[in-house]
Amino acid sequence: MPQGTYHFPKGFLWGTATASHQVEGGNTNNNWHAWEEAGHTVHKSGLAADWWNGRWREDFDRAAETGQNAHRLSIEWSRVQPTPDKWDEEAIEKYRLMLRGLRERNMTALVTLHHFTEPLWVTERGAWETEAIVPLFEKYVRKMVDALKEYTNLWVTINEPNVYALSGYAVGAFPPGKKDLKSAMQVLANMLRGHAAAYRAIHELQPESRVGYALHFRPMVPRTGWNPLDRLMRNIRYEGVNMGFPTGISTGVMKTPLGNFNIPEAKGTQDYLGLNYYSVDTVWFDLAKAGEMFSNSGYPKNADMSDTNFLANIPEGIYDSVKWIVRTYPNLPIIITENGVEDYDDHMRPRYLAQHLHQVWRTVNFNWPVKGYFHWSLVDNFEWERGWTQRFGLWGLDVDTQKRIRRPSVDFYAEICKENGISSEMVQKYCPEVFEKLFPS
Ligand code: BGC
Fold first, then answer.
1. Which of 140, 147, 143, 138 is CA-nearest to residue 98?
2. For residue 430, what is the DSSP state?
3. Cα 379 to ligand 1 centre (Å)
């Protein structure tokens, strides 16, 4: 049986990613709380993983003790600026404490400034539907960077602007539940303006900062390769889902299937690209999907499907995504800011992890500049409209008792982080079913 280890470059960041509303609990002043109260989610976030009451400490301990050297978390805008003219200094101090907590555990902090939520007063003003949000966002960003720059210089301005815009304004699953592609593209354009303003503000306050955003990148294939309509739909959908921010940042003109937006100030506003990769979509023409420009998507037949059929395990997609980034932006550092799978029983996660990391290894083996990997997520957290039905944590969470449950993936990931690589022994131990794929004889 072949033996060996796929090693990663020295200094590689190994961590997990979380987001404020999904772990903190008690966030009652943002758009998602209102959405939950209006009955649009399977469950409510409630205490979530109870970080706001201090359980971040024990979870950071878990992360550090299991070899992670980095963590990605987000700041809850509605906590630090509950009303337009009020900063909550106590809340800000809590975030300083959390970042200090990471430093004390020798962990690098990657801080996200917007992860799907904003204060209700921002929602009432139309949130990202109007350009008026840009100076508001910039003001909040300046305040936070000033407060936190002692502890980090690695920032994500906005998490998955494409998912925020499309889920909230085209699909209707996220607040405010609109189904209007045109306003989704308007929202995306304003997010790009906000990102650009934040990028410049952060650099002004902290010249040594490294600023990017987290792109949910979705590779896509037509369901039937020879069908011109499927191919056309694949291309339209691909542009609509993936290309807004990347084109805007490359050229200052954001391309969308509904037209172009001139945003010259966005050109060049990234020091690295954050990649959130989960799966690959199969796309086809569907007359019933007028609202999505007649395109529909799903997964290939016979795919290795996750617990709740939310994701197909298609590890080559992470390699293809990195390859696309390298081709689009040669030499730009890349951080995998999210990758993971919902899996209550942990029957798929070990192989999902092993197979995806093997593909990431292929990219670093070409000296492509991938600098770190953040698994989604550290502990089960509130999965937005899907509530608690999906479990993405390395650690499980009993929502009623707040008890953490150690899934086998905890130990697998710990071995990977500590080794800075993935070995044949580990694969044999945690997911022998893919041994032959990763270490062919
Ligand atoms: C989001 C996370 C979410 C994860 C899994 C990503 O799109 O950034 O907030 O929990 O997917 O659904």
1. 147
2. H
3. 13
pLDDT of residue 36: 98
What pLDDT was estimated at residue 291? 78
Please, which pLDDT band fits residue 292 given cuts at 50, 70 and 90?
Answer: confident
Walk me through the domains of the chain, giving residue ranges and CATH numbers. Answer: 10-400 (3.20.20.80)
pLDDT digits (tens, 9 = 90+) for 389-425: 999 999 999 999 999 999 999 999 999 999 999 999 9
Q: Is 338 in the pocket of ligand 1 (CB under 6 A)?
A: yes
Full-model pTM: 0.98
pLDDT per residue as tens digits for the range 293-305: 899 999 999 999 9
Evaluated on CA atoms 165, 198, 333, 341, the torsion sign reads negative
Cα–ligand 1 centroid distance for 125 (angstroms): 25
Q: Given CA atoms 411, 414, 418, 422 in this order, what sign does their dihedral have?
A: positive
Is the CB–ligand 1 distance for residue 159 below 6 Å?
A: yes
Q: Which residues contact 333 (CB under 8 A, 6 or more apart)?
A: 210, 271, 272, 273, 369, 371
- pLDDT at residue number 112: 99
Look up residue 144 and give its two tokens: 């936070």
Is 376 touching ligand 1 by the criterion CB < 6 Å? yes
Instruction: Report which ligand 1 atom has the smallest distance to the Cα of 383.
Output: 10
The residue type found at 22 is: Q
- Give the separation between CA 38 and CA 6, rounded to whole angstroms: 48
From 41, 381, 383, give the residue whose CB has the most ligand 1 atoms within 8 Å, as the site to mutate. 383
Give alpha helix (H) positions in 310-406.
316-328, 349-365
Asked if pLDDT for residue 324 goes beyond 90, the answer is: yes
Would you say how long the chain is, in residues? 441
Which of 384, 385, 386, when mutated, tests ligand 1's pocket best, judged by the most ligand atoms within 8 Å of its CB? 384
Report how far ligand 1's centroid is from the alpha carbon of 343 (Å): 14
pLDDT at 40: 98
Which residue spans within 299-394 are E strands per DSSP? Answer: 334-338, 370-375
Cα-to-centroid distance, 156 and ligand 1 (Å): 15
As a whole number, mean pLDDT of residues 254-259 equals 97
Alpha helices in 105-224 (DSSP H): 120-124, 133-148, 161-166, 181-205
Nearest ligand 1 atom, CA 386: 12
Per-residue pLDDT of 278-289, as tens digits, reads 999 999 999 999
In the block, residue with structure tokens 């200090």: 100
d(CA 177, CA 179): 7
